[in-house]
Amino acid sequence: VHGMQDNAASFDKLLPLLPARYYYVCIDLPGHGLSSHFPPGMLLDWLNYLLACHRVVNHFAWTKFIWLGHSLGGQLGTHYAAMFPQLMDRLILLDAMNQRKTKVEDTLTKVRDILTNQMNLEEKLNNRTQPVYTKEQVVSKLKQRLLLNEISTESAEILFTRAVSARDGGFVFNFDQRLKNKIYLVMTEDQQHSIIRNIQCQTLCILSQDSFNRVWIVNENYIGTYCLYSRHPKFHVEMVDSGHDMELEEPEKLSGLISDFLD
Known about the structure:
It is built from ten helices and six strands. By secondary structure, it is of the alpha/beta class. It has a four-stranded parallel sheet, with helices on both faces. Strands 3-4 form a two-stranded antiparallel ribbon.
């Protein structure tokens, strides 16, 4: 399962390096890649994304499977593994720390901001025409990532295959613009950690050294989660000298760790 505003092509370079005895299914989350969007006027919600993943599991009638997720895809996987431990054989997280915490005293403000931002975003989207870009412009935008690092032109062109649709001699982005608003649950750190503690399957957590230095260990939202991951009896934490989008940029640094974990 891919990350925020990415798509299933994120794994195009990694999967050929993984054991061939497994059957791999990559999905575009709703509002990403070639998947349809949630209905207009709807607030994008974390639980609806979990439900979409659960529908995939039910569709394939899986009774046991392995979840591999990058960033948002890994965050969804941690919640799914805790909620449905009987289904999860193993969990693989690629630079995926749990979502940001909310202090109890900030709950009202956080919820109000989500609703206000949604209304402002809807008004903005209703009063504009979706921009049409050249391929070069799209690739340039795809290279700029959410964690302020940049991916190569080659990687951006891989994402391009599912990120846009042709229109008026150019291209428009497929991702749901409502993703610019927060989709995460408003939860305290204790609530989030309670979920993580309930993960029962063996879990491989591969963290980017770059993300760790710039985000995970210096941002108070994530320090507690990193410490919990490090102490969790089911978690195996590995650090890789790579950027956040390591499955796209340097998959050869991950394939050995993942293959050994799957054996």
